[in-house]
Amino acid sequence: MTTTVGIAGIGTYFPDAIETAADLVERTGIPEAVLREKMGIRQRHVAGPDDTVATMATRAAERAIAQAGIDPTQISLVISHGSEHKDHVVWNAAAKIQHNIGATNAYSFEMYALCAGAPIALNAARSMMLGDERLEYVLLAAGSRENDLVDLGNQRARFMFNFGSGGGALLLKRDAMANLLLGSAALTDGSLSETVVLTREADAIGGGTATIGDLYGRLDVTDNDYMAQRLGAVSLENFVGVISEAVERSDATLADVAFLGITHMKRSFYLQILEAVGLTPEQSVYLQDHGHIQSVDQALAIELGLAEGKIKPGDLIVLAGAGTGYTWSAITVRWG
Q1: What is the spatial distance between Cα 216 and Cα 226, in angstroms, rounded to a whole number?
Q2: What is the CATH number of the domain that holds 74?
Q3: Helix or strand (DSSP H, E) at 171
Q4: Confidence of residue 261 (pLDDT cuts 50, 70, 90)
């Protein structure tokens, strides 16, 4: 019998506080219509003092575990693939998440691929589970409040104004009968590795405090012209490339794909990607009511796709993302 790995449970968590496009106009200097229609920010959730990365990931994990109907002691491994901006600097958030959920028989570690992290973490966990029969259940959990790190007056960082806060979790099962993980692909363009970094430049920090917990600084774009030129030349091709390769490695074609769950981005580029892989907006969800929550986006996309009836039993779905560095990633799932 061929060993399989599937998604047994999904969970998300979002803070209660919400900022709408109208709330962001004064701080960004961008008209509400542009924020809503062009940048795709209808609203975003914003973390409060108690919404740490580990806490939000824990809340999402608890919901995924409850959906799967298992006891946390059955989990053998916890992987955190969320934000590097977390409760403490130089710290393993996965261990805290493991402790919070009561996974006393597990071990834990972190993976980090920024906003490309979810497909890569899914593939890594699947590979480990296929090679180790002891890993019956593996939990992937992520939390992000990267919006803390962006000064809304810094126009160099405007592509990051969509950042929101929240947590997501995917519980994987070995020898699963449904929601099977299939082929995956990833690609990195290291020439973009230092285009977005945490800096102490006055423009990046803006008028606010430079200190956020143990961190000092804000995210900034070091070379706007190069980043725009390079991404304009390769990003669409690389998204299509990893999506196509993941599908091909699943013994399928793009014509077989029924749904795409992809990172939040500006609306025009989102629509361009859909068209390039032969899909329509009815075969995807646009995360305009949540914004971009790093590697939480893919778990959220599945939840919304199911809630809106866009994912049905038997569908081949693709989860895709891209993160500064610059990495593009995708993985396919046979749903149901």
Answers
A1: 26
A2: 3.40.47.10
A3: strand 166-174
A4: very high
